[in-house]
Amino acid sequence: MSQRQIFDQVSDMETQIGELYEQLGDLKGKLSNLLEEKHRLEMENHHLRGRLEQADDDFKENKVVNDSSIIPGEGYDNLARLYEEGFHICNVHFGTPRQEEDCLFCLQFLSKTK
Predict the structure, then answer these.
(1) Helix, strand, or coil here: 97?
(2) Has 90 been labeled as part of a binding site?
(3) N- or C-end of the chain: fewer Cβ atoms within 10 A?
(4) Is 87 helix (H, G, I), strand (E, B) or coil?
């Protein structure tokens, strides 16, 4: 192998190393951008989870307040009166006379609406 061929091969290798170095720099920049975006998304995710938990807590507090303020209406009064008169108000035996004993289904229905 002549000195000229060796010099050409070294020159080609130098060019290839330069191109690889440039590609490595590009990959390093892309990796840096991806890491920054990952961090930004993690922060946004953390922030959104906090907001979701706060909204969930507010909803639960509001629901407890609303549940306690529900006043039985006229329909509930009518069903309670029918039950006291001796008729079933449950979906199993609705409208049939009770046999002087309490019906668990009817009682459960009445307790749900209180």
Answers:
(1) strand
(2) yes
(3) N
(4) strand
Structure tokens at 72: 């039985």
46 assigned binding-site residue? no
pLDDT digits (tens, 9 = 90+) for 3-59: 999 999 999 999 999 999 999 999 999 999 999 999 999 999 999 999 999 988 888
Quick one: tokens of 88? 């079933």
Q: Identify the H or E element spanning 41.
A: helix 3-68
Percent of the chain with pLDDT over 90: 46
Question: Could you tell me which residues are beta bridge partners of residue 97?
Answer: 87
- 47 known member of a binding site: no
> Which are the contacts of 86, defined by CB distance < 8 A and separation ≥ 6?
97, 98, 100
Residue 87: strand pairing partners? 97
Q: Rounded CA gap, 107 and 83, in Å?
A: 9
In this structure, what token pair is assigned to residue 31? Answer: 């990796």
Q: Check the annotation: does 88 bind a ligand.
A: yes
Closest CA to 109 of 89, 93, 87: 89
